[in-house]
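INTERNAL AUDIT FORM
Audit reference: QA-55
Scope: verify that the stored structure record matches its stored sequence.
Auditor: D.O.
Record contents follow.
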Amino acid sequence: MSFGKIIQCVPNYSEGKDLEKVEMILDCFRGKEGVKLLDYSSNKDHNRTVVTLIGEPEPLMQAVIKSVGVAAELIDLSKHKGEHPRMGATDVIPFIPIRNTDMKECVDLSVKVAGAISEKYGIPTFLYEKSASSPQRANLADIRKGEYEGMFEKIKRPEWKPDFGPAVNHPKAGATVVGARMPLVAFNINLNTNNLDIATKIAKNIRYINGGLRYVKALGIDLKERNIVQISINMTDYTKTSLYRAYELVKIEAQRYGVVPVGSEIVGLVPMQALIDTAEYYLGLEDFSNNQILETRIWE
């Protein structure tokens, strides 16, 4: 499948336990002309599924809009429980320019999608990141603060009137955030403790808003099924704050509590360069070039 323009979309749905529901959402993307489902990852503790798609602007937009409707039918946030913050059945929809497109086109696309979601399903929508209608809405965490439960009152305040749709939280589907942004790496680090307070303190110390790394957002997560805790990290610009720098800072912060990382994971897809930078650092590679990567030379 070849596309003239390639836009990436990474919608997050508030369902990670009932895989039959997840499959019904994913069917919105399978076998669709101009759209390709690259990856999806469901997490029971987070009760969340992260999907990675690419496609041409118009068919990608239509597939995503349809998926929001399916999610609204299947997911009831009034009964939803999970470790990951959420405010919508379809929680967030970012668009990312990849090839033969730019950020402006992704911003324009996000505005169309947000408007269509509200018009078609009666779900209030907010614009964030590069699409934000005001500086206070650029940060997803600021919009989502209070989550689904808090949005019933929050949305009534003039400063939090949705960009599209009614100023009323949808009783089942909540509210959805749509925008355009740079590629993001979802990078999680697990610790050998079940003390959530430790994970929360470490997350607070490494995230930018509290004086940590510039392009890091983080929170502590309780992985009950594994009886450990996790630092759940969003690397908002891996070219300026590398994965290995975040990992090393977590190690340093963990030492004061007598705990250590016991593994890490990447949710969804990751740019190859982010992993190459990490390999270069830990292996101490000298004068390394991407031209030395076999796959790079094969596909030149």
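Auditor finding: record pair retrieved intact. The domain at 185-292 is CATH 3.30.70.670 (Alpha-Beta Plaits).
Action required: none
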